[in-house]
Automatic annotation (TrEMBL):
It comes from Siphonobacter aquaeclarae. This is Lipocalin-like domain.
Amino acid sequence: MKKSLLALLVLFAFVTGCKKDDDKNPSADTKTLLTKTWIASKVAGNASGISITVYTRGASTNLYDKFKNFSVSLKSDGTYSSNDTEGTTTTGTWALSSDNKTLTLTASNGAKVVYTVNSVSSTAASFKYTIDLNAQSTFVTAIVQLAAAQGVTVKTGDYLTFDVIPQ
C-alpha cells in the first residue's frame, strides 16, 4: 500500500550540480544542456523513510508504468511544455537559478514547482523535489491527501527523484 502511495505522489510531480558561477546569470552551458525534450528513465523517492523505485525505463515490471508517456520540453526562449503520464499537456516558463542548482517550472496558471538540480549532462539529468508541508500549495495538499488515504504520513523533507534522458 505504501508503494502505491509513492506511485500516486509521483503523478503530481515532474519532472542537473554544476560548477558555481560568480555572475548573476545561470551558466550558458547548463542552460544549453537543459534545453531539449526529456523523458523519464527512473523515478524513485522516499516517503516516511520508505525508499522505492517507482519506474525504470525498459523494466519488465514497474509500480507505475505510465511514466513511459511522460515528457518535458525545456525551450531556449524560457518556455516549457510537458505531457504528464495521463496525456495532459501543461505549458509555462522555466528558470534556472544563477548557481545552476534550482530549476523552477511555472505553469501558465501560476502554479510553481521547484526542483533541486542533482546533475546535468548532454545524455542525462537528475532532479529532486523535496516536500515542504509549510508550502500552502495545491501540489503539497494533494500529496498529503493521497498519502493519508494510503495510511502514510508525509513529512517535510520527504522527496522524489526524477532521472531523465533526452528523447
